[in-house]
Amino acid sequence: MASNFSARSLFVLLVVLSLTNFNSAARLLADTQQTLLFKYHNGPLLTGKISINLIWYGNFKPSQRAIVSDFITSLSSVKPTIAQPSVSTWWKATEKYYHLIKSKKTSDLGLSLGTQIVDESYSLGKSLSNKQIIELASMGGQKDAINVVLTSGDVAVDGFCSSRCGTHGSSVSTQKMMNRKNSKFAYIWVGNSETQCPGQCAWPFHQPIYGPQGSPLVAPNNDVGVDGMVINLASLLAGTVTNPFGNGYYQGPKEAPLEAASACPGVYGKGAYPGYAGDLLVDSGTGASYNAHGIDGRKYLLPALFDPSTSTCSTLV
User: Fold this and answer.
1) Which residues pair with 184 in a beta bridge?
2) From CA 165, how far away is CA 26, in angstroms rounded?
3) What is the DSSP string of 114-158?
4) The model's pTM
5) Residue 148 pLDDT more than 80?
6) SS3 98
7) What is the Cα–Cα distance from 200 to 216, expressed in whole angstroms?
8) Taking CA 310 as the corner, what is the angle to CA 308 and CA 316, rounded to the nearest 5 degrees?
């Protein structure tokens, strides 16, 4: 459910920015200049070896699936051949949340690409409810996993574009797990907004529907919709591991919290301000803007993360 703030503000906000909620939007139009007071609410964070399972719903090209799967693999890649700043360097910033609660004997987190499920037959139709998103997420393995549902551009999802670009949450596991009664698994949903609302969910690769109308940036993988999905997925992954069950790290009300990435809306590089993503790296060959290198020469644009040790938004560039 979208927060009251996002519902009231949708038609008066100045620029497309990012806002990731536990059960709300990954990126919305928002003006969130405020003092950030993050608090740990004593709940568990995701720890240990976690597989990220991808559930592809609808029509995705193999090249589009590769953009996302390479991003997931890049999160934990430490190959010396990968240029800096890298996707894995960006992800290491989440470790600060774990360091703050080491007294609780938390184990390190390690992410890896798990199984991929492709549903090109639209088994649940082309208009999905929140309940159906969870049904799709349940198709993946639920032990030590984050199940990510990605819907293609011709699939409508409740609240998509009107109040959110994606969401993350948890659900009671439907699979038997030894010595774990009523266990929960974490899930994420992200939609491809290229044909439905690129000005809302694929900024800065498309002109925003409100605010300053500067020229959009060139997408690093030449796919406005999927490069936008990567931004939303990255934001939601950071929120998932640091606030997987609604009682981890966040600021504000539990129903509409600001999390590790959503606390820094619209910030991708130093000098960012409403309508301007910040000073980014530019590929000399393609003119694409990015701030992180991935595996196999991939480039990505990733959101700033809130640094709990300094109470500021930290960027790669």
Assistant:
1) 172
2) 5
3) EEEEEETT-TT-SEE-HHHHHHHHTTS--SSEEEEEEE-TT-EET
4) 0.88
5) yes
6) helix
7) 12
8) 85
